[in-house]
Hints:
The structure is a single chain. By secondary structure, the protein is α+β, with helices and mostly antiparallel strands. It has a single domain, classed as Transferase(Phosphotransferase), domain 1 (Orthogonal Bundle). It contains 8 helices and 14 strands. Helix 4 crosses helix 8. It is globular, with a radius of gyration of 17 Å. The chain starts with 6 loop residues before the first strand and ends with a helix. The model has no long low-confidence stretch (mean pLDDT 94).
Amino acid sequence: MNTDNWTYLYKLMENGIKADTNLLYVPKLNPEKNIMCMHYSPDKNYKKDGVIDLDLINWFFEREVRFLTDLQHLKCTPTLYDVDIKNKKLFIEWNNETLSYVVNDPNRSIDEELPNWKHQLKEAYKEFNSAGYYKMSLYPHCFFIDKNKQMKTIDYYAVVPHTEPYIEYKLIEGIVGEYGKYRFEMSTDNGLLNINKFHEITVTTHNDVYWPYNPFKEVYEEINRVV
């Protein structure tokens, strides 16, 4: 697909400022805003502080393709339309904006626009867990509401199978920001990131800051009580 006339997608921060959504890829929307292109590249026009290490970008691109493909059967996974391996682009289903615009705009109400949002987020979490995966990217800008009022999630580069409990920290160190660095430090031992511990911190503590109510903490505790 030709994306020359497509526009950048931004997230809305808690302070009302628009910002780039991630450090790895450039998200662009078609004029109808129903398809998003995820271009894994060091585009400084979009990502002012983005990752420029091509090996790191490629590593996460491969993970994005792998897990977005493998998890197409989940209700919360957007439809994958096409993958351009050569140019490192993915084209997925989209709908207008990220959920950050609803959550962080004081003139909008997520309770009014999607009354069952807490339930839908819990169900999305359960879907990943039942399929045998952790999903680390659980910020409002990692979700959108489709045309049928179904919550869907993006950024599958941050998905990890339960069967892969450790990742070498040096592989991902290049995308670790200062604010969230404590999670990595608390979860790393002898150069290995403990995925289960990192995930626990993310869902029970870290996400409190970004949501008016953190439903992931509740569902995490429910699942682990059963276990």
